[in-house]
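Extended Data, panel c. Modelled sequence:
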Amino acid sequence: QWKISHHHTSILGAVEAPTTTTSSGGGPMTPQRVENLFKLLEDAFEIGDPDLMARRFKENGLMLPIDVYEDPIRGQDDIREHFQEFFVERPIVSSVERVEVTIDPAIEQRWARDVGTMLITYRNFGSTMSARYSLDYVLDDDGVWKIQQFILTPLPDDWAQLRPIDQTNRNTTFAQESDSDRAEQQANPIPSVTEDDVRSWFEEWNAFMATGDPKLVMSLYLPEAVLVSSMTSKPRTTTQEILEFYQIFLWNRPQARILQSLVTMSSKWCKHVGVLEYTLKDPQGQIREHVRERFSFLYSYDDAAGWKIAHHQMS
């Protein structure tokens, strides 16, 4: 009886060619295309190839490792080295729950963001880890969608016991621009900002928290903003939910200082990511503890309100 004597499966150097049917920039970006980009990430996990994973990132791509005390990993070479070690445990993405897909509303569509939770199974040990993820994609000069930033943060153990997010009445993308929107944008161009401006928005957020007024802090967010925090297992996807978060969080009288951060900017969005340390106080004003965590602010320009927080992650 004939049997297989030799079987060879390998990744060719031209691996990017077939994937450009879903990662190339041809045609408008849609939530389905964002999901397809995530599937490319899942494939890299399944295959366990650190070179393939590194190629999913831009050359200057950024990854924040799970341990907040580790330095951010920047560049394809360092990302490849990270996954060489990570893939030893043969992890795969077992399941995904998508929380929010946000797409650049501009005509040229230069970015997209995908956030949610995933379950990672380590096949060598049979163990699992639930984690939040945040993926920022950008369109590179070759017209291929690449990962600009990847954040992966472990979830509290009781995540599965919480209620599912109701997405019934929630749009997964910003509305695409109409002809009248384009004309208005040309007549009223978005004011340019500098890196110092973006960093000052963090200080404004910190100062607003110092007032203890949750409504004042909430005024910094867009109505459709999302807040994901390790201090609560429930992603905050409405204005009321974000307000309720601050009504509780501000009891701690938090004040933050940045330990390390990076700012990136585009014509209609700005990002400020890094590591901060909170000083938390008791009701008598005595310092209770210091807490270190990652932060990620995505700012989007609103014609009526100006620059506001569209997505905020604290983990």
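The two ends are 58 Å apart (CA to CA). This feature is highlighted in the accompanying rendering.
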